[in-house]
Each structure stands twice: as C-alpha cells, then as structure tokens.
Design a protein that fits this description.
Two copies of one chain form a homodimer. The first copy, chain A, is of the alpha/beta class. Chain A folds into two domains: 2-73, Arc Repressor Mutant, subunit A; 110-341, 3-Layer(aba) Sandwich (Rossmann fold). In chain A, 47% of the residues lie in helices and 18% in strands. Chain A has helices spanning 3-15, 18-24, 30-37, 41-54, 76-94, 100-106, 110-116, 122-128, 130-153, 172-180, 197-206, 242-255, 280-292, 301-310, and strands at 57-59, 66-68, 162-166, 187-192, 213-217, 228-234, 256-269, 299-300, 313-320, 334-341. In chain A, helix 1 (3-15) packs across helix 4 (41-54), helix 5 (76-94) crosses helix 9 and helix 9 packs parallel to helix 10 (172-180). Chain A starts with a helix and ends with a strand. The relative contact order of chain A is 0.09. The interface between A and B is large, with 66 and 67 residues.
Chain lengths: 343, 343
C-alpha cells in the first residue's frame, strides 16, 4: 500500500533539489534546506523522514542538520541512471497506472488516451507527444549504450550473410550490425512499418552504410521477406501475446534459409517466479499492459524454448548477461537466445 | 522503484474480479479467468505473476489452474478494509502524487487542481467532487467506527462540563460526547467554519442533542471562544505546520478555564524513525502534502509534548491503542494526549 508514496517521497527529495543541496553542503537544517529549494521547512522535514528511516540521509539531533548517509556513497553515474529510470516511472507510469484495469480489459493503453488523447502504444506516442518522448528518450539511450554491445557479442554472423532486423525501428540495429558484424558481402535489411522508411534510409546514408543496408516495409504479423541467413528479433517479442509471438516466429522461420539462425533478445522471468531477488514480476506486467502496449508480457526462458521448438527451431545457445555487469538497481534481466532453423 | 507497479498490479487483480472468481471456484486457468472477467488470458497470466511470487495465489503447473493461497486465509472484513484503503490510494493519491513536488513548492494540493480543477484541501473537495467523496467516504466511516469509541474511552469529562470540539465538522464529535460522556449539565460546542453551521444544527436536532449542543463559527487560527473545561482537538493538528499548531494550542489555552483539559487525538511518528515496523514515514508525508492539504504532517509524541509544554500545558496522560486491536494492515498509529492548563 505504501509503494506509490515511498516512490514519490524519495523522488521528490531529488526533484526538489534537497539531495543536491545536501551534496553541496552537509549539515543544513530544514530551514536552510527549505530556503535553498523554495519549500517550507516543515515540508522539507516531512519529506526527509523516509530517507532518514532508510538511512539515505542522517540528522544531527543536536543541531537539526541533515547530511547524506548511504546516498553519499552512490556514484554519480549510478545515481543518474536510477534517477532517469525513476523519472520515466513518474512521467510515463505513475498516473497511467490508474487505468491499468481498463488497459487490461480493452487491450490498449488507456492512460495514454486519458492524459494525451493518444490512441496507440507508448512507442508511437513518444514520436508525437513531447512529454512521453522526454520521459522515454534518455532511457532508450541508456538501454542502447548498455545493452547493444553485449547483444552483438552474443551471436555470430557468417561472412557475407544476409541479415533481417525485424522491427528494426529507425535503422540503428542494421547500422550496428554493419559496424560490429561486418564482413565482405554482408547485407542487412531493416523490416519496419512503412512510415519509418525515409528516416531509416537517411540514417543509413548518414552512417555510411547505405550500400549494405536496405529497408522493407510491412507488418510483422502478416509476413516477412525471405532469403535470409540471420533474423534478429531485438527487444519486442515481450510486447506481444502468445498467439502473436508464435505468428512472428513462424514468419521468421519462413524468412530464413535452411540452417539459418534466429537471434532473440528479450527479458525473461526467472524459472522460479518466487525468486525474491528478481523484480520483473513486480514491474513488467503493469508496465507493459498499463503503460506501453496494453498486451504482451515477459515469459520464462523455458517458455520461449518451447515456442521456438514448436515453430521449427532448435535452440543452440542462451547468453545471460554477466551478473557482475548488472547494476544492483537493474530490474530487467535479458537473455539472448540463438536458435537454428531445423531441417 | 517498483512500488507503484506492485500496488496497481495487485489492486487490478481485485478490481478486475480475478480474486473473486478464484474465491468462487478454485483451479480456473488463465483462459477461464479471462473469460470470467473479460480480459485476454495472456493479460490475466501476466497480472498473476506477482501474486504468485508473493504466495497470494498458487498455480498448478500440470493443469495451469490457479487457486487462492495466502489470500484464502484473509477474513472478508479484513480484506474489505484493506481494499477500501487501496481504493482510496488509487483514486485519491496515485495520480495526484505526480504533483507532490509542486504541492510542496506551492503549499497546496496541486493534484486536486490538475484533476478536478479544485483549489483547496481534499476535505473541501470531498464535499463537492463526487469522485473524491466516493474515494474518501468509506474510509472516513471505517475511521469513525474503529477510532471514536476508543478515543472517547481515553479521557474523562467532569460532570456538567463545558466541552469545545474544535474543528468539529458536522457535529458528530459533539453528538458522541453527549452520548458517551453525558452528565447533567453537560454542554458541548462545535467550533467550525461558519458554512457548516446549518448542517451541524440539523444533526444536533436529528440526534436529539439540540438542547445540550451549540455551534460557534470561526477560524481556529484566529481565536476560539472562551470559558471551557475541556477542549477536544480530534484528528487535525497533523494537518498544520508547526507555527500553526502552536497558534492553535495557544488559542485552546485561552479557551480553557484554569485547570481545564485539552485532549489531542493524532497519529504520531515513532520516537525512533528508523523503526521498520512503522510505515507512517513511508505514507504520511506524501499523503498529507501531496493529496490532502499541501502542508502539515505527523510529529513524534515527544514533539507534541514539547509544544504543549511551550503553550502552557502539562501532559497528564498518553493513551496508545492496544497493539492487539490494531490490524496488521494499519498504517496509522494514533495516540490520545491529555494535558492540563497550567496554573
């Protein structure tokens, strides 16, 4: 019951600048902090009770001065990453979650409609609603920076292969495939909704890969172009329900040459859902159903294995990120699943 | 970070009727539950991952059927009380908390303005905004039923005393004083903003206490009428900042005859704010500042003791509720402080 209040009390201490003020100068009283951040001392004192309780800050009972406690030990880059994520939760989720039951009933993100008059997914809203874009943009950049290098280390692309990047967005996946998996004769095709073609081709041009890259417009639930050696499904199968994922996997199967490889990047639930260290069940259903697409959700690795098998693939390799590389604040636990088209 | 999502995922399972469906019939699959509550099976499965993780429900891996686990052991009255509180948090707080930093900066409840165009406190909004009233009404009734009998057992009213019920709302406190503390010659005055006079007098009439009860309109921060033996401050000092509480206590001091008694009912923070079993620091700052009045907040008992002393009172008795009478889901920890006007 105190989840929403805990979240906003802590975030408000950052957003109002109380933590920054204490970082600059320890020992400030509620009156001094109030003057520094433009709030009544009483309110500052109230907001700081929870950080005090959690040991994030400390208070000298004699002087009434506050200092950073556990928060003083958090590295700036770690803090900024967490605050970016918290900012997304505040702007992109907190109010929208009110409509979670309605989103589940209708299979659409009712929160986006209520707050922005927007019908569609969060990804689509980010393209046209500045507030949504500003909430999600920094997160998407963090994602790309931290996940893509690891993703591309997790599978091999044969020399001269033809690669299909399914739902490849504005072409970044294709560009990185050329850079990190380049070989003579390599060709990469971005498959995406036709509306993104112009932007995608501009990006290929700007990054000097227009010769190797092409664009095919279409709907992943209808069909994919054929004749490929490698098909990439990066970060989106969890946005579809089971029947749609099976359709996508079958379409990918048809797109591949015999012996071709499918590479799936997706967050997965732990096989033991009661694992207390894994917070994905705490986060993702509400996030995906209530704030992003109104359908879909994570699966367990064993579920994806079964679905791949069912669609004519043999799983050859599963790569999880080195736990040492996953910061303590990370909620998402992604894997890369490589599988080969049978027969 | 997962506080808001945990809250709404669990609440959505109740609001959509998934828990009710399982209570009626154990062993339903996601497909059967989806049909019963009007949602896609995939979404039901996603929402149930968190209750599975928490052990609230269980799932038979062979049949895919869900049953109530820990939730089966929760008594209906307990569950309804918790759901009433969760409903208030959803409607009265979740979206409004987005504006917590703004509420703190402006000292007003910005969320009420944004969502209802209402300027004022949640109490005032409840009088005119149906959605606010429906969120708060059941909670206020639970409050009255569970707290008032205990409150009135916690202090004595001398026979024939003159009692002032400060900010006495629609007169309920005065009516209960007559009923539970009645004696020949007892007189009770409800002090409240003038707008409530007519409703208050109607209630006195309807409950047959019009002879003993009267109404005085005014502002508690200006002055109180004088000549009383007992002054009641029920459940509102935590809605004021320190300077205002001191003003109210000084006004109460003037309202009392020498040796007269002040009785304060208020929730209090634990003396050790780091007590992990006390969730008030997790809840109240965001609640009071962001959702109710935009100012004020709980204090520790020692703080109220000091303030009463400073305003000319001697604390004579502090009554905490018997822990055995406090349900495990209760966030609020109230005390009754009795103090006598010095010399």
């Amino acid at each position: 019951m105190v989840g929403p209040t805990r979240f906003m009390t802590l975030y408000a201490c950052f957003e109002l600048g109380i933590v920054d003020a204490l970082r600059k100068e320890g020992g400030l009283t509620a009156a001094e902090l109030g003057a520094a951040v433009g709030a009544k001392p009483d309110a500052v004192e109230q907001l700081l009770y929870l950080p005090l309780k959690e040991g994030f800050v400390a208070r000298d009972e004699a002087t009434g001065g506050y200092t950073l406690a556990a928060l003083a030990d958090v590295a700036e880059t770690d803090l900024q990453r967490v605050l970016t994520f918290m900012g997304m939760i505040k702007t992109g989720m907190l109010r929208q979650l009110y409509y979670l039951p309605d989103s589940v009933s209708t299979g659409s993100v009712v929160g986006l409609k209520e707050f922005y008059g927007f019908e569609g997914t969060m990804f689509e809203a980010a393209a046209v609603v500045p507030e949504v874009r500003s909430a999600w943009g920094p997160l998407a950049q963090n994602e790309t920076a931290s996940v893509y290098p690891w993703f591309f280390r997790s599978f091999d692309v044969p020399d001269g292969a033809r690669v299909l990047d399914v739902r490849g967005g504005n072409g970044l996946g294709a560009i990185m495939t050329c850079r990190l998996k380049g070989s003579p004769g390599l060709r990469v095709t971005t498959f995406e909704q036709p509306a993104l073609e112009a932007e995608c081709l501009r990006n290929f041009e700007a990054h000097g890969v227009a010769e190797q890259c092409s664009f095919v417009g279409g709907d992943v639930l209808q069909s994919l172009p054929g004749g490929f050696d490698v098909v990439l499904l990066k970060h989106f199968v969890d946005m579809y329900d089971k029947d749609d994922v099976l359709t996508i996997l079958k379409n990918a199967h048809q797109a591949l040459e015999p012996g071709g490889q499918i590479v799936v990047l997706a967050p997965v639930y732990p096989e033991d859902i009661t694992d207390p260290d894994d917070l994905q069940a705490d986060f993702f259903p509400a996030y995906i159903l209530g704030c992003v697409v109104g359908r879909g959700g994570l699966q367990k690795l064993s579920t994806y294995r079964g679905w791949l098998q069912e669609c004519g693939f043999e799983v050859t390799k599963v790569t999880a990120k080195d736990p040492a590389d996953i910061p303590a604040d990370a909620i998402i636990n992604r894997v890369v699943i490589c599988a080969t088209k049978r027969g």
